[in-house]
Design a protein that fits this description.
- This protein is an alpha/beta fold.
- The chain has one domain: Dehydroquinase, class II (Rossmann fold), CATH 3.40.50.
- Helix content is 39%, strand content 17%.
- It contains 5 helices and 5 strands, in the order E-H-H-E-H-E-H-E-E-H.
- Strands 2-1-3-4-5 form a 5-stranded parallel beta sheet, with helices on both faces.
- Helix 2 runs parallel beside helix 5 and helix 3 packs parallel to helix 4.
- The structure holds 3-dehydroshikimate.
């Protein structure tokens, strides 16, 4: 059995659908999970889709991924812009990492325009909403299969 791709979501992404819909859209995180799982199935990938509001829990999952996953798709939410701990965990995982953001972080506040995650990412998809997760899966399929 091939290892799953971990699709990890950080703080406040559990609020999708309610939270600033003009920026993040009306889909809920459960809608995102359903679309990710469906696209993964067509690509022949297994996925483990998770969300946490806690930096340490995300770091634990990234550490787990080193042995248990084939790659990591990560929307770290606000921790993208602050967390050296997540960067260090991604570097230690030695796996392909694709960074995703629903919004175009480069059209937003200056503090969102720097990403620690990018330093460990093979590529970044931002500004395309929920389809960005599906595009990340397509790219990941090319990296892990
Ligand atoms: C999600 C968040 O929660 C923000 O903190 C980031 C990102 C952007 C997104 O666009 O998916 O700045």
């Amino acid at each position: 059995m091939a290892k799953p791709v971990f699709v990890l979501n950080g703080p406040n992404l559990n609020m999708l659908g309610l939270r600033e819909p003009e920026i993040y859209g009306r889909d809920t995180l459960d809608d995102v999970r359903v679309r990710v799982e469906a696209r993964a199935a067509t690509l022949g990938l297994a996925v483990a889709f998770r969300q946490s509001n806690h930096e340490g829990e995300l770091i634990g999952w990234i550490q787990e991924a080193r042995e248990a996953a084939s790659g990591i798709i990560l929307n770290a939410g606000s921790l993208t812009h602050t967390s050296i701990g997540i960067l260090d965990a991604l570097s230690a995982a030695e796996l392909p990492v694709i960074e995703v953001h629903l919004s175009n972080i480069f059209r937003r506040e200056t503090f969102r325009q720097h990403s620690y995650v990018s330093l460990a990412a093979k590529g970044v998809i931002c500004g395309l909403g929920v389809p960005g997760y599906e595009l990340a899966l397509e790219a990941m399929a090319g990296l892990v299969t």
